[in-house]
Amino acid sequence: MTKETTVAGIPQMGYGTWNRSADEAHQGVIWALEAGCRHIDTAQGYGNEQDVARGIKDAGVARNEIFITTKVKPDNYGPGAVMPSVRESLEKLRVDQVDLLLLHWPSPHNKYPLADYLGQFAEVFDAGLARKIGVSNFTKALIDESIRLLGSRTITTNQVECHVYMQNRPIIDYCQKLGIAVTAYSPLARGAVVGDAVLEEIGKARGATSDQIALAFLIAKGHVVIPSSSKRGRIMQNFEARKITLTPAEIKRIEGLEKGMRLVNGDWCPVWDA
């Protein structure tokens, strides 16, 4: 695998495929791999696992050089449903094992008991279908209960919304205290960071863009980041952000951009930690 910074064994800079159509996911993966990125993030719920696989195949990069993350969607948390759904994901991805498998959300409205679907999730891990396991959008209480239920199995990461405008300190501080890596999704606040005056000023001296500085900030915080784009130039630009080192003073200024701008807050969400 290309030598890149890793967090808990996860390449720190990845390419996210949320909201990418079939062709966008296929082409985006090719461009990301051409840029040197070796971490590709997808999910059952994105409906593009097979397109990610096509992109990997057409890019011609060996499987053992790529870190693949996918996620089990809550619709597949029912009795006996997790394992078959993961096997279907592996078939779509054309792999025998993913590098990281996440539970995409806690079961909305507690439709399925955590102990039931987490138990199935543990069986998937024990069967060797994933090298690492983790969660996404889990709260402190759910993290605690998951640790108890998983026993000796390690939660590698909690993937949560995190960007300069919503730094999500309650859950992030908690995960870091427990040694659980944070993966930041929507790290560019769905494009809202572009043109930010503070980020632009910090980037100007480096010939960097505001969005590159936003990514560099999250990297400086020790998070895995998975920006997404359908544009080749932007994908390459995002990946280059990993080379930027911010000063402590710059990090402090960017911390001041926090404004609680949570983008994901539907009725399917848990009660977020405050």
Automatic annotation (TrEMBL):
Keywords: NADP, Oxidoreductase. InterPro entries: AKR, NAD(P)_OxRdtase_dom_sf, NADP_OxRdtase_dom. This is Aldo/keto reductase. Belongs to the aldo/keto reductase family. It comes from the Bacteria. Residues 13-257 form the NADP-dependent oxidoreductase domain.
